[in-house]
Amino acid sequence: MSDPEGVRHFLTINAANYRRPSVVRRIGVPLGGSGLFLAEGAEWRRQRKLLAPTFTPSSINVLVPHFHEAARHLLHDAEGKPSVNLSRAFQDTALEAVLRALFSMPENRAREELSALVRGYIEGAGRPGLLDGFAPSDNSFGFALGKRRRFQSKWFAAIAAIIAQRKAEPRSADNRDFLDLLLQLKDADTGEMLSDDEIRDQSATMFFAGSETTARLMFWSGYLLTLDREEQQRLSSEIAAFPPDRVRMLEDLANWPRLRNVLLEALRLYPPLPHIVRQANGPDTISGTSVAANDQIWASAWIMQRHRKFWQNPTAFMPDRFAGKSAPWVQMPSYIPFGVGPRICIGLHFALSEAQIVLAHLLARYRITVVGTRLVMPVGRVTIEPDYEPMFRLERI
Ligand code: HEM
Q1: Claim: this prediction has a pTM higher than 0.90
Q2: For 35, which of 138, 191, 193, 201 could close a Cys bridge (C-beta 3.0–4.6 Å)?
Q3: What does the radius of gyration of the chain's CA atoms come to, in whole angstroms?
């Protein structure tokens, strides 16, 4: 379904008739348990309402120092190297940013191990296979799920240990992270706090939903800037006028409107999640097409955001098209990099502010170019990946 009206129908107007398909659940449950991404119906509504306060701008402000730290680490790693694999580096940075933001985890072995565990899963047992495609329910072909279950028990035990340690040693109020925010959450109706398992599942969910996606956004933005040197130059001037170290809270990011528009344009051309998939609970009609129970419906941000019906010069990199658009994911029906409707990405401000801060640190210090002339082509898997990982030359400004 690549028609904005149809997409609005099944993701917003009649969203209650659709759920995440079993292939997504089979891969997602070991990563995020029964956290927000996989919850459905009344349970999803309860979780979304409960978690909303942790994603408001004032909560994200708490995370800004963590984004700076992750960016400084990237700079430290790149220092003195003639060229850098920025695709890899951004993945490390995004993992680091999310682990710092979630658990204030400094650079240490535990963080490396956690990152390696999840990366191993995503590259191995976490990839969809043939049996996932045919599985009529989450648990069918159970024999094919052994590796995923083993991963889940290791991964959940690791996160549970972090939470137990934090509860034993609370942190000071001026030095908080996402876990502190979760530990304080109270259900407005019942007054209940989150259980340890719920905190574990929500933390794990944010970890997997927030790392690879943001890494891809940073990669494609960086790559596009190597193809448009003038835009990169303009961006460097914008950042020089308000250096990254002056960013203390989200409001400060308003000093970089160009950088924001570059990110929005990169999300248009290379939406990190190219497709949003649902399965129908019951029959429906979408833009004149009949849908039966259990049919899968795919919305493709990748197609809609490059379609000449909806965009002028659709394949051109033109960040200015977003000038003055405060929330294009709401204002422009054919712009859905974060989805649309009640299940729109809860972490979008988290992602945009992290990417702005990391890229600003990089571009404040370096002019970036790609080594060689081979173009990088996008490949749509779970995220839009580069077909090869180019090396980037970082030239000190
Ligand atoms: C550039 C980065 C990101 C992109 C492009 C992105 C994209 C998306 C999209 C398209 C959806 C909707 C999926 C659907 O309707 O099926 C979504 C949902 C979600 N995202 Fe993001 N995301 C990003 C970053 C993040 C971050 C940083 C976090 C958390 C820290 C996060 C957490 C979530 C969660 C929990 C959901 C499920 C929301 C729900 O079902 O209510 N995302 N994301």
Answers
A1: yes
A2: 201
A3: 21
Residue owning the nearest CA to atom 22 of ligand 1: 345
Decide: 274 and 384 in contact? Cβ < 8 Å. yes
Domain segments of the chain: what residues? 4-396
CA dist 57 and 249 (Å) reads 9
Nearest CA-CA partner of 359 in 227, 266, 251: 266
Band of the pLDDT at 268, cuts 50, 70, 90?
very high
Number of alpha carbons in the 13 Å side-chain half-sphere of residue 168: 6
- Measuring from atom 11 of ligand 1, which residue has the nearest CA? 345
Ligand 1 binding residues, C-beta < 6 A: 36-37, 48, 205-206, 209-210, 213-214, 217, 272-273, 276, 337-339, 343, 345-347, 350-351
Measure 397 CA to ligand 1 centroid, in angstroms. 35
Task: Give DSSP secondary structure letters for 366-384.
Answer: EEEEESSSPPPPEEESSSE
In testing the pocket of ligand 1, which one of 50, 213, 275 has its CB within 8 Å of the most ligand atoms? 213
Give 227's contacts (C-beta < 8 A, 6+ positions apart): 317
Residue with the nearest Cα to atom 1 of ligand 1? 214
| CATH code assigned to 4-396 | 1.10.630.10
CB 211 within 8 A of CB 217: no
Per-chain mean pLDDT for the chain: 93
Residue 293 sits at the vertex; the CA angle it makes with 292 and 299, to the nearest 5 degrees, is 75
**CA-proximal residue: ligand 1, atom 41 (nearest):** 343
Which residues are 289's β-sheet partners?
Answer: 286
The pLDDT tens digits for 288-317 are 999 999 999 999 999 999 999 999 999 999
Ramachandran region, residue 37 (left: φ > 0; alpha: ψ -120 to 50; beta: rest): alpha
Given the structure tokens 């908080």, which residue do they identify?
Answer: 176
Tens digit of each residue's pLDDT (9 = 90 or more) over 175-201:
788 898 898 888 878 888 889 999 999
Q: Is the pLDDT of residue 260 over 70?
A: yes
Ligand 1 atom closest to the Cα of residue 211 is 27
